[in-house]
Amino acid sequence: MRFGKAHTARDWFVACCLGLFLPALAVLKGPGYQPFSPAEVCATVLLLGLTALGVLSQRESRQPIAYYLLTLSLIATHIVISLGGDLDLAAFASVMLHDRYILVSLIAILFLTEEGEELITKVVIYLAVLTAYVVVGYVLQEPDRFTSLFGVGGFARETSIFPNSNMYGVYVVCVILLCLPRIDSLLFGKPALTYLFIVAPLFLVTLLSFSRRAWLVLAVGCILFAAFRRGKSLAHLALWMLLMGVIISLLDQGAIVDRFLLIFDSGYASNTERLDAGAQQMEVVMSHPVTFLLGAGVGEVGPASELSSRGQWLQIDNYFMQVVLEFGVVGLLVYCALFFYVVGSAVSVLRGASLSVESHNRLLSYLLVMLALYVVAIVGSTPITFPLNLLQWLIVGIIVNFIERARRRGTRKRMVSGRLDVAVLANRSRLPR
């Protein structure tokens, strides 16, 4: 059964569940950490149900066993370490906070075809564009919001429907990176419309977020995409760079540069607070060998700690530090092992010659988004913040699918080559001597 060009009913079903239902549940939940709200419970049940359905209906004999083992090791490590501490609601909530959206990667692997991956990616892009138009609506109603880009009235940081401008900025930048290899396939295949109605609004709200990390990720991401993309034509990329240049030329570059340079200002209050908190957290980690290896207690820090009487540091700006505080260096090593496996395998596939130009550029954009989300986690809790956690694990699942398809193609080529060699030898053996 098909509902469009090469899109199966399974593709549409998963795209609706992950791209529409989960965001709708998040909106219904409202802002703030509410781990046991009806919306959060429904989201968890949905993810578990989809994973179980995918396992039961799976027909593909060849599976990414290495990824499955790493994923199970990560979840098992979190559970075992949590069982070694105080078994309370905070520990349970924390494990769910870290691990629930890992199921999204499994759902992507079990359900999505290559066409389905493209469908859900476009759903993510169009939803991000809708949030950008929400910001445009705010600016039209209150034009003073826009003046911050001209150095007037301080920084009016836009968040759209997100609770945090930094998270929104990073989310939008990741979507822009996903757009780069798809300029020809969005909005009826009209590049001019894509730049005008998709790329330009997304770039504008990236600026209006005044998120320094988002700006840095956008600049580095575009440079890396330009450096490693395939294809002779640079027309689209040149047009994109021209568009950014035109928009920036209309703004107060001084205000933007001053905001960006605050990253390196040791006297800036935000930087000072982060450094002081990091030093205190490192003292806790190094206070005892057990704490260093297995953490100071699951649910003792981070959002879930509000459920514990012993909790502290409700917000930790470095996700990797949060992992060490809760699960120790052991937990961090398992988390990083999964990351390096996926990145290393993806780079190996990109360096091979088996991918088409289109597939190469799409895999490159997925890899850049994954790297961006992991790097930004150094200064933010992106892996446990919706919808960045959903996007992170969705991208991981799609990359694993790319890796498995490349391996299957390689296996088929070797089998065909082997059969040809056998046939040649058989023909030679029949020739008269």
What are the main properties of this structure?
mainly alpha, 433 residues, two-stranded antiparallel sheet, 16 helices
Descriptive account of the structure:
- By secondary structure, this protein is mainly alpha-helical.
- 70% of the residues lie in helices and 1% in strands.
- It is built from 16 helices and two strands.
- It has helices at residues 9-29, 38-56, 65-83, 89-99, 102-111, 114-141, 165-179, 191-209, 212-228, 235-249, 253-261, 269-285, 289-294, 319-351, 357-376, 388-430, and strands at 2-4, 7-8.
- A two-stranded antiparallel sheet has the order 1-2.
- A hairpin with a 2-residue loop joins strand 1 (2-4) and strand 2 (7-8).
- Helix 3 (65-83) runs antiparallel to helix 14 (319-351), helix 6 packs across helix 8 and helix 7 (165-179) packs parallel to helix 9 (212-228).
- The N and C termini lie far apart (58 Å).
- 39% of the residues are buried.
Layout of helices and strands:
Elements: E1 2-4, E2 7-8, H1 9-29, H2 38-56, H3 65-83, H4 89-99, H5 102-111, H6 114-141, H7 165-179, H8 191-209, H9 212-228, H10 235-249, H11 253-261, H12 269-285, H13 289-294, H14 319-351, H15 357-376, H16 388-430
Antiparallel strand pairs: 1-2
Helix pairs in contact: 1-2, 1-5, 1-6, 2-5, 3-4, 3-14, 5-16, 6-7, 6-8, 7-8, 7-9, 7-15, 8-10, 9-15, 12-14, 14-15, 14-16, 15-16
